[in-house]
Structure prediction request, 332 residues.
Amino acid sequence: MTNTTIPNTFGIAATADCYQVVSREEELPSMLANPTLVEKPCLILGGGSNMVFTRHFSGTIIHLENKGVRLMEAHDDDLLVEAAAGEVWDDFVRYCISQGWYGVENLVAIPGTVGAAPVQNVGAYGREAKDVIHSVRAYELGTGVKRVFGNDECRFGYRDSIFKHELKGRYVVGSVVFRLHRTFAPDIRYKALSDALLAAGITSPTPTQLADTIAEVRWSKLPRPEVTGSAGSFFKNPIVSAEHYERLKAEYPDMVAYPVADGYKLAAGWLIECAGWKGRSMGRCGVYEKQALVLVNRGGCTGADVIALADAITVDIQTRFGVTLEKEAIII
Ligand code: EPU
Prediction:
């Protein structure tokens, strides 16, 4: 068993049978060509920003720390940029902006690594990683065989991809290729963002102004991982049928919801706040006071504390609104 501290932004003390760090992508084929790796569970870790450890991990944790960003192809309008899985996502976003490579500005300040971005299809402020991912280079566990997944093959969905379903635990992402643009086309449709720009008197933001404003909006609502432990949004925003939405809207006129293809996406943060959970704690886990979608470590929190609070919230939301909350965070 390893006593190494396993990185996770919730700040939960965690252990595993085996913990391996990858510092170069070239190590992956031989490291993964080990058939015993598939006999026991294997967990691929980036920044550990979306994970909650609830028990000792009886298997191998592979932690990606490979670095590097490089321009692969430059065309008149767009560019292909390759980034190593172990790059810190926010450093990558800021680097792209500094180079005049655009398309990832709205995803600034999201905790985690480049390698986690396609797995989770991270998203914020009206944009998702899938909008800019060209392809993903990954290696099969047990054989080390390389495979390149095009954007379509990743089957991206809301906080979702093939790497969380059919290929769950079967591939390790080594690097990601992004299709970025030379022209800056700010996407400021997200209301909290357009409001913040308006309040700052900015009508036509520069790329840096846009990224800085997004980071400010983000950190005004979400806990900074270096200060308060959390896994970001703990729940997904649930989708309900139009009929279910109409019923709830009649009862709760100020409920926040957005129309989507198959009904309405409800703001889970609003539901949890409306149910009176915002700022409350159970044991050493609490509901963040500025954003009810986030569960936080009140000091010495364990995985069991997180699950107890999450379950109590889920049962309450089901009872009050008839809505089933799904966890966005990955429970280990
Ligand atoms: N709201 C409340 N009370 C709350 C929280 C939210 O009433 O406690 C309302 C807000 O007023 C707003 C609406 O709910 O009208 C949506 O809130 P917000 O803009 O904060 O976004 P969210 O839906 O709660 C999602 C993502 C975040 C992402 C933001 C911004 C999910 C699960 N979460 O949160 O992602 O940063 O939008 O785009 O989709 C993450 O995944 O870790 C994450 C932080």
Q: What stands out?
A: The chain is about 25% helix and 25% strand. The chain has three domains: 16-64, 69-181, 230-331.
